[in-house]
């Protein structure tokens, strides 16, 4: 009896050891590729900035972190909140949030449409959704510019039809950035939404309708709660990369309004303030982590409620 | 482009190990869209050396990469403003171009330059100015003023692009308000910041541009580089180049050899090679800037010889100034103004 137990226990131990061994390569890669570089960035953020970029190694200072939130006024030397950084942060968060909402509003009906097609047709629709991924982001962004610029397709078409007589300035506005971001991130919203909607049993919606729920009630009380994991996953997939977006705001926004990504780039480039750039990067990562936590909390709560 | 280049350098490496197909390799690290392929072919054929080219997009990027090491670049092309940093940090090899055979061709004007006195490190690649590109159909007034950027006339409002080069923009604004380069006069800097903040809503964008954005009427005016402006005019004659009479920066990109260069002798050959007037003319034929080598004009196309973008008109010649890198604490001040401007 005890002997048998020993054998089982030894086997379990061996099993655990084997699992560790087998997952070791993955763990090493995660450490080297994700945590290691992050650690380097943390280290850079607490060192003294070099005169022409880089840092002075092993001389430590909290200046980088201080400058993330505070600034010393260059004219009267008083310390105040870093108004510039906060408004850039606010602009990025706002843009990421609006992008998420817009893609959700557009993505939900799209995913719903695909999920309600006959099974053999769905693959074709999904395939069509993934087509934009075939082309490089930069090229797609330049293509958007071709559509919306003053002599672009849209303005020329509107002027030909006589609806307008002066081109509408769309390029280099916040609206252009939103258009670009919405276009780029829409598939990332549609795919997880579809994955959830596909699993949804539409007989539940029929049952609700049979019990005199009108269609908006069915949507609010039945469908949305059931596909919440998809909504959360899609929102995360859109919100996180939008927050650090660099190329789209730069090309379509004309670079007049900095986003967080561009602010970080400035510190590593012309600003020559690597500690501040590192501290800003870590802050961005922290914001992303925090919002993920909030999302996951909210999602697990709704799931528990509707279990 | 990268994988192709890597493949090319890999092949070159194999070739250099095997029976001498090519004498060797030369790896050039230069600004993008700036190196004439014909020049490279000629160099390769003359010396039986395989050349690779890798692009960078700013002095600070190039500096960071060179400092980090782990590359096999031989040649780098820093701008005059950042040359002192490269030299002070000990990144460059003292190849003594002043003792090379073709050195006699270098225009004496470019020999005793503050960023490399006597030319112990570097050879001129190209030089130019930063000024105004403006569409004369939209704006008929005087193009030779930076008021076009800082107090734009009505017809240009909302149609101006400013190149996001912090140092150039601040230099022009400081000069426009009557200050000197790298000034730390706080009263003036406050005015500079206020002027920039006031002007920004009148600009349509702050971006690195391409010719297409001008010809497609995205922009009617821009802060631009002289050679870039010439390339635009050659496609679209509505555009002219203006030299701000309040003051404008002159800059020069320079060919230098890295201390870590694996192919020093080939790099030296290249430095000497581009001081030959005919070869220097090839450099200019591509990116459309002047090159600093005497006698190269003879080999240039006619549209270059008289181009006002290249030959600075006499009345504006003394308004330009060779800009130098500002001290770190001054850069810190300027970065604050810049961030304030872009927030």
TrEMBL record, chain A:
<dbReference type="Pfam" id="PF00528">
    <property type="entry name" value="BPD_transp_1"/>
</dbReference>
<keyword id="KW-0813">Transport</keyword>
<feature type="transmembrane region" description="Helical">
    <location>
        <begin position="20"/>
        <end position="47"/>
    </location>
</feature>
<feature type="transmembrane region" description="Helical">
    <location>
        <begin position="95"/>
        <end position="115"/>
    </location>
</feature>
<feature type="transmembrane region" description="Helical">
    <location>
        <begin position="168"/>
        <end position="194"/>
    </location>
</feature>
<dbReference type="InterPro" id="IPR035906">
    <property type="entry name" value="MetI-like_sf"/>
</dbReference>
<feature type="transmembrane region" description="Helical">
    <location>
        <begin position="124"/>
        <end position="148"/>
    </location>
</feature>
<feature type="domain" description="ABC transmembrane type-1">
    <location>
        <begin position="89"/>
        <end position="295"/>
    </location>
</feature>
<keyword id="KW-1003">Cell membrane</keyword>
<feature type="transmembrane region" description="Helical">
    <location>
        <begin position="222"/>
        <end position="247"/>
    </location>
</feature>
<keyword id="KW-1133">Transmembrane helix</keyword>
<dbReference type="GO" id="GO:0005886">
    <property type="term" value="C:plasma membrane"/>
</dbReference>
<keyword id="KW-0812">Transmembrane</keyword>
<comment type="similarity">
    <text>Belongs to the binding-protein-dependent transport system permease family. CysTW subfamily.</text>
</comment>
<keyword id="KW-0472">Membrane</keyword>
<dbReference type="InterPro" id="IPR000515">
    <property type="entry name" value="MetI-like"/>
</dbReference>
<protein>
    <submittedName>
        <fullName>ABC transporter permease</fullName>
    </submittedName>
</protein>
<dbReference type="GO" id="GO:0055085">
    <property type="term" value="P:transmembrane transport"/>
</dbReference>
<feature type="transmembrane region" description="Helical">
    <location>
        <begin position="276"/>
        <end position="296"/>
    </location>
</feature>
UniProtKB/TrEMBL annotation, chain B:
<dbReference type="GO" id="GO:0015846">
    <property type="term" value="P:polyamine transport"/>
</dbReference>
<dbReference type="Pfam" id="PF13416">
    <property type="entry name" value="SBP_bac_8"/>
</dbReference>
<keyword id="KW-0574">Periplasm</keyword>
<keyword id="KW-0813">Transport</keyword>
<dbReference type="GO" id="GO:0042597">
    <property type="term" value="C:periplasmic space"/>
</dbReference>
<dbReference type="InterPro" id="IPR001188">
    <property type="entry name" value="Sperm_putr-bd"/>
</dbReference>
<feature type="signal peptide">
    <location>
        <begin position="1"/>
        <end position="22"/>
    </location>
</feature>
<protein>
    <recommendedName>
        <fullName>Putrescine-binding periplasmic protein</fullName>
    </recommendedName>
</protein>
<dbReference type="GO" id="GO:0019808">
    <property type="term" value="F:polyamine binding"/>
</dbReference>
<comment type="function">
    <text>Required for the activity of the bacterial periplasmic transport system of putrescine.</text>
</comment>
<comment type="similarity">
    <text>Belongs to the bacterial solute-binding protein PotD/PotF family.</text>
</comment>
<keyword id="KW-0732">Signal</keyword>
<dbReference type="InterPro" id="IPR006059">
    <property type="entry name" value="SBP"/>
</dbReference>
């Amino acid at each position: 009896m005890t002997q048998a137990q020993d054998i089982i226990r030894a086997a379990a131990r061996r099993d655990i050891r084997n699992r560790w061994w087998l997952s070791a390569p993955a763990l090493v890669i995660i450490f080297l590729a994700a945590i290691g570089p992050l650690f380097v960035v943390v280290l850079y953020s607490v060192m003294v900035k070099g005169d022409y970029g880089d840092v002075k190694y092993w001389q430590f200072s909290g200046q980088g972190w201080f400058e993330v939130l505070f600034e010393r006024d260059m004219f009267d030397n008083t310390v105040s909140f870093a108004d510039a950084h906060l408004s850039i942060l606010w602009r990025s968060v706002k843009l990421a949030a609006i992008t998420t909402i817009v893609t959700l509003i557009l993505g939900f009906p799209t995913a719903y449409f695909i999920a309600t097609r006959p099974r053999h047709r769905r693959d074709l629709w999904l395939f069509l959704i993934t087509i934009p991924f075939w082309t490089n982001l930069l090229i797609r962004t330049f293509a958007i510019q071709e559509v919306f610029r003053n002599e672009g397709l849209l303005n020329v078409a509107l002027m030909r039809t006589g609806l307008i007589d002066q081109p509408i300035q769309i390029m280099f506005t916040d609206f252009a950035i939103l258009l670009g971001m919405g276009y780029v991130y829409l598939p990332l919203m549609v795919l997880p939404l579809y994955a959830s909607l596909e699993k949804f049993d539409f007989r539940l919606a029929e049952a609700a309708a049979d019990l005199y729920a009108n269609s908006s009630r069915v949507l609010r009380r039945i469908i949305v709660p059931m596909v919440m994991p998809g909504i959360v996953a899609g929102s995360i997939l859109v919100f996180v990369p939008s927050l650090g977006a660099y190329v789209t705001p730069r090309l379509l926004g004309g670079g007049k309004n900095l986003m967080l990504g561009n602010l970080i780039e400035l510190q590593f480039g012309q600003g020559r303030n690597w500690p501040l750039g590192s501290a800003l990067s870590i802050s961005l990562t922290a914001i992303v982590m925090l919002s993920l936590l909030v999302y996951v909390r909210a999602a697990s709560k709704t799931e528990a409620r509707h279990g | 482009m990268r994988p192709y280049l890597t493949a090319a350098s890999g092949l070159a490496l194999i070739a250099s190990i095997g029976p001498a197909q090519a004498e060797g390799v030369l790896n050039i690290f230069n600004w993008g869209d700036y190196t004439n392929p014909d020049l490279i072919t000629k160099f390769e054929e003359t010396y039986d050396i395989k050349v690779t080219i890798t692009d960078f997009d700013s002095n600070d990027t190039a500096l960071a990469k060179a400092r980090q090491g782990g590359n096999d670049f031989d040649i780098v092309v820093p701008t005059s403003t950042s040359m002192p940093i490269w030299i002070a940090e000990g990144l460059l090899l003292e190849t003594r171009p002043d003792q090379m055979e073709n050195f006699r061709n270098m225009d004496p004007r470019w020999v005793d330059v503050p960023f490399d006195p006597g030319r112990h490190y570097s050879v001129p690649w190209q030089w130019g100015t930063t000024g105004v590109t403006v569409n004369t159909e939209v704006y008929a007034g005087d193009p030779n003023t930076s008021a076009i950027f800082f107090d734009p006339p009505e017809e240009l409002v909302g149609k101006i692009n400013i190149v996001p080069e912090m140092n150039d923009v601040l230099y022009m604004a400081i000069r426009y308000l009557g200050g000197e380069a790298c000034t730390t006069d706080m009263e003036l800097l406050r005015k500079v910041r206020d002027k920039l903040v006031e002007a920004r809503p009148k600009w349509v964008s702050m971006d690195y541009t391409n010719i297409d954005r001008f010809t497609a009427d995205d922009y009617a005016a821009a802060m631009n580089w002289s050679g870039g402006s010439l390339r635009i005019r050659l496609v679209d004659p509505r555009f002219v180049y203006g030299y701000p009479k309040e003051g404008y920066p002159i800059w020069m990109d320079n060919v230098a050899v890295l201390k870590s260069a694996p192919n020093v002798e080939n790099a030296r050959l290249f430095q000497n090679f581009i001081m030959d007037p005919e070869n220097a003319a090839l450099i200019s034929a591509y990116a459309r800037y002047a090159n600093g080598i005497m006698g190269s004009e003879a080999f240039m196309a006619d549209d270059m010889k008289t181009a006002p973008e290249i030959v600075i008109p006499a009345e504006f010649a003394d308004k330009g100034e060779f800009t130098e890198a500002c001290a770190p604490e001054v850069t810190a001040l300027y970065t604050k103004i810049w961030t304030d401007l872009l927030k």
